[in-house]
């Protein structure tokens, strides 16, 4: 029997359970699935991908798996609020029930046009996901779902309803039942079953029930009003008050345990006006606009922030270019290193953590895997830098949209009270991509330039996924999404930009990503990113090939600079301020840095003259010449370290300076000093004293120092962590449907009786009989039923059409797998002919 085949009617069954069943009504969920079209089966597997792992052998197994507790819980949690309310209503309705009864329980006596309009969609969703089966006149909730949602003392129903009269009076003495019936003004009966039926009929008859309540004391009505919307349980003493005794005598309160009473479901529904829910929510709450801006302003603002996002990521990885912070033993970035990074970027720590996580999600930064493990840029970063600015932004935006890494969790605590660190483990939240896409889709539903009201947005998300376990996390992710989208330039002034809109799916289903549809694949995401980049390109400023030199030893870049110019200027000058225009300041140290990198004074003069729209100021020219004149006058090499200089007076000056005592210098020759410090420390020490030494090689050549760009080995971006089993694509689902149909054909195909074979087991025949039957089937072209044990020892039954028998193998078309396969004869347990068609 299928797990959802209805039990045999009993004397206490609800009205309608024993109604004669039409011949074409399915008897179980398996039969209901068997009557579905292939498209409907595919829809079920898309909506509930956990049913595919592994692929069911037939429709009976699919139905069994669809009724397991874990799968049903997962399916119920992913329903919207009204679909959940419909399922909860079915759990308190008689079984089987009708469409009209469900509508009445949801809309109440007065009716509700919104409920009437939304009910077909909600029931269609429950049918599609195999949570409900049967025609409209015999609707059944899957048994496991009914057990989860039906009222009980240990798990109250979300409807607030209690047990039925029949359930609450089970085990009550016949004498007590007859006393209740008599007190309620009903004729006594000869057995408990008829007494329960009589009391149930009274409570469900609106006219007689109203007349009974009109006789109730006011205090009794007050008690019922407190229980009517739940919880339906209350406490009474061994000697209840008169108004409570009146309710107990008439069965309006029924005892469930010593000192505990319950309001029967039928009585509660009368008091509620027929409603199973106090407030049905058939219509999703709208997302309203808080403010509206001109779309051009939104796009321009978002584009400006997109440019800032690129500059921030570049600055971050430039900071880590020679090797970034060390990796913690447990993984991730230390709190101290995150603080340093935030200071270097001039950003708050949570914002700096977001950029670090985004660079990691985009595959631009990773650990280098060395013994002294550190974070560094990946080779993909160099490729990313060569892309045009719009494409670089699109790569970041698509990585953010699909990443399960959730930067907003950084600084919080995990389940074991450990701090969650940036780039560390335990930051993946599988709901993050779905929530981000849904938030942006809701923004896209507003008029262009409209900034959403955050409260209405969160209310809509809570309606679409009302599961209490997921609400808090989803609400927090939604809030982080709004902030991160603004930082990244997907939105501007809170409204979705045109290039942000291009990142979204053009699917019209608002819950596409919430009901098991696969997320965009790599090719689709890349295409959407390219479309967004094309829309962003005209809004970004063009890189400039010049700066404006000032007399105060500064240079102003009035916009983004071309990459070679920006890199050269970053060596020659220090960034003083950022914004729409970047200000660089020239200092002796920055000029010396350029000279250390192999530039000469003439090279620097020519560079500035070629890239400045203003004449090179005299103070800057003097600064370059003065630093160059002293640069390399002193030479430092490895002895432990030494200083050599042709000017003895200069060496005498160094020895006489008290600041050189820490270097422990001594004269080896008139033009040579030796030091106990290493060459690097000696170089820095003399520079701090105001000298401009140059390092030299053992051969006496000046060493040209360049920043060493440290890169990790090739690394791929982290894979998103899926929410449950991987979401299937259309090809996989279509193949699974074919396999399930074929397996169902094999398991249900009529076949001739095989002697000495128990019903339902694999056929058993001798090797000679198997070979003879196979050879006969090859000649007649007929299909046969076989039992087969594969190499792993798994037994299965199949329907095959043999094509060739030779060498101990049978080549046949396998209806179960819908393909031609080869079977070893010694693995066939037996064979039987299929029954002739009627």
TrEMBL record:
Name of the protein in its database record: Helicase C-terminal domain-containing protein
GO molecular function: helicase activity
Keyword ATP-binding: yes
Organism the protein comes from: Streptomyces huasconensis
Annotated keywords: ATP-binding, Helicase, Hydrolase, Nucleotide-binding
Domain Helicase XPB/Ssl2 N-terminal residue range list: 547-669
Composition bias, Low complexity: 516-525
Region (Disordered): 1-32, 502-525, 745-766
Entry annotated with the keyword Plastid: no
Annotated ranges, domain WYL: 769-831
InterPro entries linked to this entry: WYL_dom, XPB/Ssl2_N
